[in-house]
Amino acid sequence: MEREKITIEELLQRYEKGERDFAGMILEHTNKTFHNVNLSGISLEGVEFHNFGFYSLLKVNFSGANLKGIDLGEQFLEGVNFSEANLENVCFYQSVLRNSNLSRCNLSGADFRQASLQGANLIAANLTEANMGGIGLDGIKLTNVNLTRAINFWVDGGAIFDNTIMPDGSIRTD
């Protein structure tokens, strides 16, 4: 079965009409970008993004969305609200998530290799088995975060731990 292809404009029109399930589609980039758009509760599980540029997703509200398994690698995701979203197995490889809200997200198995999380909110995030290789956590407060079996996680001097489950299962509070 061939996957449906839609543009950003089509997705936004259909979302405005109440449609929320776009799982498995191919999203074609046009001149339109996702800037200051509310897509809360949307399902983009397994969606493939074609020809998206580095500044395509700024200040988007994905709260409560299902983005399981999508590739957001090498994207500039400044100010994006992912609170309470399902981001299981999402690729954030080399992405900039500056000032993004990742609170209460399921980020299990996510790939954060070489990503920037400067100013990100990770309160109560589930990072079980997430790949944390090469990211800096300087100044990030990790409150009630679950890092169980996180891969390539190392403690960097600037992170603040508060009731954080570390990769080895121990609890850390500074």
Structural account:
By secondary structure, the protein is mainly beta. The chain has one domain: 3 Solenoid (Pectate Lyase C-like), CATH 2.160.20. Helices cover 5% and strands 13% of the residues. The chain has one helix at 8-16, and strands at 5-7, 26-28, 34-35, 48-50, 57-58, 141-143, 160-162, 164-165, 171-172. A three-stranded parallel β-sheet has the order 1-2-4. The chain has a two-stranded parallel sheet with strand order 3-5. Strands 6-7 form a two-stranded parallel sheet. α1 (8-16) links the parallel β1 and β2 (26-28). It is elongated. It starts with a strand and ends with a strand.
**Main sheet: strand order:** 1-2-4
End-to-end CA span: 53 Å
The radius of gyration over CA amounts to 16 Å
Taken as a percent bin, the fraction of beta residues is: 5-15%
Number of strands: 9
Give the rounded overall mean pLDDT.
91
Task: Describe the structure in brief.
The protein has 174 residues and is mainly beta. The protein contains 1 helix and 9 strands; from the N terminus they run βαββββββββ.
List the helices and strands and how they pair.
Layout: E1 5-7, H1 8-16, E2 26-28, E3 34-35, E4 48-50, E5 57-58, E6 141-143, E7 160-162, E8 164-165, E9 171-172
Parallel strand pairs: 1-2, 2-4, 3-5, 6-7
Antiparallel strand pairs: 8-9
List keywords for this structure.
1 helix, 174 residues, mainly beta, two-stranded parallel ribbon, three-stranded parallel beta sheet, 9 strands, Pectate Lyase C-like
